[in-house]
Design a protein that fits this description.
This protein is α+β, with helices and mostly antiparallel strands. It has one domain (2-185, 237-242): Aminopeptidase (3-Layer(aba) Sandwich). The chain is 25% helix and 29% strand.
């Protein structure tokens, strides 16, 4: 069963019980670390939940924001981080939202490959439409890009299967569901940390300057031994869905 979260608020405490596939370093994006855990409670009408009996098996999260404010646009270069920050700034200041962005659709690893992501996306679009929005942009994280971190995101996104749909599985889901690829968000998410932190997150030595390929990372992580620091700036792909 997949429903808007405002119809089943009792599931709020269990929304993060699912076993997802995020790499270990991703939760250390400072914007997400500070705000993501509050999204479902604070934006209940913009989130959905899927269950199998009593088990929570998937979630879909989105956030509203005011795209009319000076210096803003519906699909910013800083993607995921930017829209999440805007949503909370506007909520705090009482600004009326004019746009919305998806944040994630996460499916329990035991339920992958069953077409659940398509159905969660459809219910998320419906939930957004009921709040008066006409579109649902999403800063999409292509699921197979980590296999080719040295390929530019622009070149990667151009790839198509024999049927004309994107070669990447997650981009393919979005486009088959009616979404249209708009542009790259070159700095959608950022994770920085000491070399010791990166060693703990990845199991890699991080003992050489320059770019390091990290399992699960869409692009290389830049290592600076003199500064005892490594930085990961992740590009995403803006996909726009019409609502209604």
């Amino acid at each position: 069963m997949i429903t808007p979260l405002d119809e089943r608020p009792a599931l709020l405490p269990r929304l993060y019980e699912i076993a997802d596939t995020w790499p270990a370093f991703i939760p250390h994006d400072p914007v997400g670390e500070a705000l993501l855990g509050r999204v479902a409670e604070d934006f209940l009408h913009y989130c959905v939940v899927a269950t199998d009996g009593d088990r929570v098996v998937a979630r879909g999260l989105s956030v509203p924001f005011d795209s009319r404010a000076e210096g803003r646009e519906e699909m910013p270069d800083k993607g995921w981080d930017q829209v999440l920050g805007w949503a909370y700034r506007d909520r705090h200041q009482g600004h009326r939202p004019t746009a919305v962005s998806a944040l994630e659709i996460a499916v329990d690893t035991a339920y992958l490959g069953r077409g659940l992501s398509y159905r969660v996306l459809a219910v998320l679009r419906d939930a957004v439409g009921r709040q008066g929005h006409e579109a649902l942009p999403a800063p999409v994280r292509p699921t197979a890009k980590h296999l080719e971190p040295r390929v530019t995101m622009t070149d990667y996104v151009r790839r198509r299967g024999d049927d004309g749909f994107p070669a990447d599985p997650w981009l393919r889901v979005h486009v088959k569901a009616g979404g249209s690829i708009q542009r790259i968000a070159p700095a959608s998410m950022t994770v920085s940390g000491s070399l010791e932190q990166w060693r703990q997150w990845t199991g890699l030595p991080f003992d050489r300057d320059g770019d390091t390929d990290v399992p699960g990372a869409l692009v290389p992580v830049h290592c600076d031994t003199a500064r005892d620091r490594a930085d990961y700036v992740e590009p995403n792909v803006w996909v726009r869905h019409r609502v209604g």
